[in-house]
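Would you mind giving me a polypeptide sequence along with per-residue structure tokens?
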Amino acid sequence: MLFILLAVCCSVLVSVLLKLARRHGVDVGQAIAWNYVATSALTAWVFHPSLDALARPGAPWLGFVGLGLLLPVIFLALAASVRHAGIVRSDAAQRLSLLVSLLAAFLLFGEAVNAVKLAGIGLGLVALACMVWRGRTDAAEGPAGWLWPLTVFVGFAAIDILFKEVARAGTSFAASLQAMFALALLVAFAIQLGRRAAGRTRFTVRDALAGLLLGLANFGNIVFYVRAHQALAERPSLVFAAMNLGVVALGALVGTLVFREKLSRLNLAGVALAVAAIALATHG
């Protein structure tokens, strides 16, 4: 369970770093781009992937390209969601996205469906509606407070579906990870070069260092999650449930206690429903 705890901490740490970035004048877009330098280098160092698998017939390059595009774009959406909606709702929206990927598994991949999982999916949608609801006191902020969490929800669901497609192709995990991160790096820096050409940003050492730290947390989340599955190979559902529930719970604690995020009773009910929905979906 230590690996699960470390993975949960690293996942929430990513949101915390995104929250702190604005306060310390860090350009989030640049930090996300440099994050992929760290994750690409660490993947090569830790997993030693054999890239021969990427040149074989049937390698899922369509999935790799889709992930290479989505990973940095949705990372930017997560940063915007943390900024406008807070850590609590952003982390919960990210983890609730698994419900859409479960539904896709039933409809696209032929996995068995049962009433408990369907109940979890339905409850998760109710939880999401409760979490993104903004009261009258938040009306001045405009739609950003609910639009970005919804974008995170849909975006991470799409990423998870693409991950499933890549996994079905049989390419090794390490090689797939290396390809995704390398493509995401190119896309992320292309976006930043476009911003630089438009005079909207300039590259700094501070942003690079912040991005490398963000990449370390991002990669730690992946490594410890994989190690948890290896340590508990006969209980994958336990790892899956504990990871998602842990992120929602720890994110709620950090957001409310450390950053004093203001949540309505309906928002808090949504977080509680999210925990119940994930428990139902993974148990089912």
